[in-house]
Specification:
This protein is an alpha+beta fold and about 800 residues long. The protein has 18 helices and 32 strands.
Length: about 800
């Protein structure tokens, strides 16, 4: 079977190109996203089921309809919301089903409308409709799945397919099946695409749009016009274009392969989402180099990547089914647009000032808004809302064949892309207290859409942060590469303070916060990033793209969370491994006020950071950290203390009963030095500190501990193992492979570095004792590569008693 372009196949494809994907689901509203190849009025109906078990349909309780939005000749998208037809509301711990009606057919007919797609199964029941479980009103039965970073040609198998197994095994049990799914970043990789896949995406994008986009290839706005179509920018040959004409950074520091097939065109970004969520557009065979051009000389990686990507595509029916059957929430991270997106001011200046960089950024953000953000906050896309205006202008842009400049300029503002300063030709920034943020106060008063959001359920709340587009940057022309605040001052107010205060009086018993970037990472990663930062290689390892690189912002985040909550669960990804960290926090009872004496009462708090990454992007470094080799260098507990008025952050390191301090800022004049000592855990801690007032003891202290993972187990739903017979020759390669696959060696203590997906549950007795959060991480083991195992992280949420109060010890 040879490669066949999409324009030869489009008329033989089903009406539904991708979806249905179940999105935001509340007691009084259910939203489903779907992409069609033709326009339609879409009606969503939600049904109760007999005894809430899902198997037998009961009665219609929610209904809603909406017309699709045309964003391409063969691409019509809608996120339709069903509301109660009477006084009905969805109840906790019940399974519901839904159906979709189009102009001329219902969901099942639309799925199999063409002979080549007879087995488009998106259900776990005989009625063949998708279902979902509402979260319970008992935290002991809450099940939340999360994960991030899914690159089609990345290392390992696609762990998102494991979600299908989890739902299949528990489909008729509302308290056991996953009730929410959080995709915490890098749902697509815009910068790092396999060569063969890029050509398929370019072909599909042009067909879906119905016209070829004119991409501006000039280094500056004042240069003479030069435009090329995406199809003229060959796969495997885009790295220099991305750097020189786009200003992108994925290929810097000797990594040209990271951007050799960078997405540029709007159709390419649209097509990427359709390709990673649905098997419908996939050709039976990916293109060969000769399909691009008879004389095209491919990179040697072409065939290797194509083989991996083809395997990724074969399992997409399982991903499609699972996304139709669990409420799905998403948030962006850098690769959804391009590597290092808004990392620092230098990146903003490089990319936004260049026509191709700005165009690509806007294309990626528009695709994100339609394919991801719409379903997170459907109310923002209703009539007379900002989202509806964005959708109308996206439709105008399509209808004009990419020539309506007024619509395009409005889209930039709805997406939050700043104007350029006419003098410097660089993006405009505005002040936010002592930092800068990207300008959003446009002359015509158009407001950008906010990507952050909150979810309130029966007994838990989830606050999803946007740490990409609301960063705070240091002032000064010589500080463009300094690490940013991942949330600027105004972002702290909007994304942390307000949601926590608004939800203070709800029935929620636990707070989860989705933070795409880890608060705490492996020490080796910190060391690498610190080294890169010192040497000015800020784009080598995302240097500065971590909370701990901006100490004041990190301190502010912890203080603000614990001002309103005793317990917080962080869900994070990004880092290509899974792990669990416990942070015990003690502070004086007057948040925001410095302690005036050693008798100030202290309160106790606890944070659990649960990391799950990557769905499909395992790397050699994370796979090594996964093994027993990392156990030779375990993560050590960290002890920190600080002050509210002038935030200092001090790490206390205990080495052979000696203690030293880091990052202490000494006054210019000779300080008054006193020694302060108190107990932390089982350690007697004492350190010297420079203070002007001997009464000014630390306002807060915390301890960081890495949780050990339990030995892996086989899940109950795995009925059959497939054993692979490896050759047992005596050559060195086979011996090394056998040692690598050994189970003992693979059972590391802290990190899971293979492709994985995580299921979060809770232990929640009525009293305050023995509360815990549990993360079961599912992954493919090297010793049985076609089977699945899971490793458990058990994180106690008990509030530790504060250490004895600090006391001043005079020399």
């Amino acid at each position: 079977m040879s490669w066949m372009p999409l324009n030869h196949r489009i008329n033989h494809l089903p009406m539904i190109l991708a979806g249905p994907i179940l999105r935001r689901t509340d007691p009084d509203g259910v939203t489903v996203w779907v992409a069609l190849k033709e326009a339609s009025k879409v009606t969503l109906k939600v049904y109760s089921t007999h005894e809430g078990k899902g198997e037998i349909l009961d009665r219609e309780i929610l209904i809603g309809n909406r017309f699709t939005v045309q964003i391409g000749k063969y691409l019509h998208v809608v996120a339709v919301t069903a509301k109660p037809s009477k006084s009905d509301r969805l109840q906790p711990a019940q399974i519901y089903a839904y159906n979709i009606e189009f102009d001329n057919c219902e969901l099942l007919q639309a799925l199999i409308s063409e002979p080549d797609f007879p087995n488009a199964n998106i259900s776990y029941f005989n009625h063949q409709l998708p279902t979902f479980a509402m979260p319970p009103d008992d935290l002991n039965n809450l099940k939340i799945v999360h994960g991030s970073c899914r690159k089609p040609h990345g290392g390992g198998k696609d762990a998102l397919t494991i979600l299908d197994d989890l739902i299949l095994d528990t489909a008729d049990r509302a308290n056991d099946r996953p009730q929410q799914l959080f995709l915490t970043g890098d749902q697509i990789y815009g910068d790092d695409v396999a060569d063969a896949l890029l050509w398929a995406l370019t072909d599909a994008g042009d067909t879906l749009l119905g016209w070829q986009e004119k991409l501006p290839l000039k280094e500056h706005l004042i240069d003479s016009d030069r435009y090329l179509n995406p199809s003229e920018l060959k796969p495997g040959q885009r790295s220099d274009l991305a750097r020189d004409y786009g200003g992108f950074t994925a290929m810097l520091i000797n990594k040209p392969e990271k951007a050799k097939s960078h997405l540029f065109g709007l159709g390419e970004y649209y097509a990427m989402y359709l390709f990673v969520w649905s098997p419908v557009l996939w050709p039976q065979e990916l293109p060969k180099p000769k399909d691009v051009h008879p004389n095209f000389q491919p990179d040697k990686l072409w065939e290797k990547e194509a083989f991996i990507v083809q395997g990724f595509g074969r399992d997409l029916w399982r991903v499609r089914r699972s996304l139709a059957n669990v409420p799905t929430y998403m948030i962006c991270d850098d690769h959804d647009i391009s590597d290092d997106w808004y990392l620092n001011r230098e990146w903003c200046n490089r990319v936004i000032s260049k026509p191709l960089g700005r165009r690509t950024l806007q294309n990626g953000l528009l695709a994100y808004a339609i394919f991801q953000a719409w379903g997170n906050t459907p109310e923002k896309f209703q009539k007379e809302q900002l989202g509806e205006a964005l959708l109308k202008n996206a439709e105008k842009w399509y209808l004009s064949d990419g020539k309506d400049i007024v619509a395009w300029d409005k889209l930039a503002k709805y997406l939050g892309i700043p104007d350029l300063n006419p003098q410097t030709k660089l993006p405009k920034f505005e002040e936010d207290e002592d930092h800068l943020i990207l300008e959003r106060n446009y002359v015509d008063e158009i407001q950008p859409i906010a990507w952050y959001y909150t979810i309130r359920s029966f007994k838990h709340e989830v606050i999803v942060l946007d740490t990409r587009t609301w960063r705070g940057y240091a002032k000064g022309d010589d500080k463009t590469t300094e690490p940013p605040m991942l949330l600027s001052h105004i972002a702290f107010e909007k994304q942390i303070k307000q949601p926590l205060q608004e939800q203070e009086n709800t029935d929620s018993k636990v707070t989860l916060i989705v933070v795409p970037t880890n608060l705490v990472s492996l020490r080796i990663i910190d060391i690498v990033q610190e080294t890169d930062l010192e040497k000015g290689r800020v784009f080598n390892s995302d240097a500065g793209d971590s909370w701990n690189f901006h100490e004041a912002a990190f301190s502010m985040l912890l203080a603000e969370m614990f001002k309103n909550r005793d317990r917080v669960i962080i869900l994070s990804g990004d880092i290509h491994y899974s792990a669990a960290v416990r942070l015990s926090y003690w502070c004086n009872s007057h948040f925001g006020e410095s302690s005036s004496s050693s008798n100030t009462p202290e309160s106790s708090h606890v944070l659990a950071q649960l990391t799950s990454s990557a769905f499909k992007n395992a790397e050699l470094s994370t796979q090594i950290a996964h093994t027993k080799a990392k156990s030779l260098f375990p993560e050590q507990p960290q002890y920190w203390a600080g002050w509210n008025k002038s935030p200092h952050l001090i790490e206390i390191q205990i080495i052979q009963e000696k203690v030293r301090t880091l990052d202490v800022q000494l006054p210019e004049k000779k300080p008054l030095v006193r020694q302060i000592g108190y107990m932390l855990g089982n350690h007697q801690v004492a350190w010297k500190i420079a203070i002007k007032d001997i009464q000014s003891l630390p306002d807060w202290r915390y301890r960081i501990e890495w949780i050990k993972r339990q030995k892996s187990q086989e899940p109950n739903w795995q009925k059959k193992q497939i054993f692979v017979n490896y050759s047992h020759s005596n050559n060195l390669k086979d011996i090394v492979s056998l040692l690598w696959r050994n189970r003992w060696f693979q059972e590391g203590e802290e990190v899971i570095g293979s492709g994985n997906i995580s299921l979060v549950s809770f232990q929640w007795p009525e009293n305050n004792d023995n509360k815990a959060v549990i993360q079961d991480v599912y992954w493919y083991p090297a010793w049985k590569p076609y089977s699945v195992v899971y490793s458990r992280y058990f994180v106690s949420l008990n509030l530790d008693n504060p250490p004895p109060p600090p006391r001043v010890i005079y020399p």
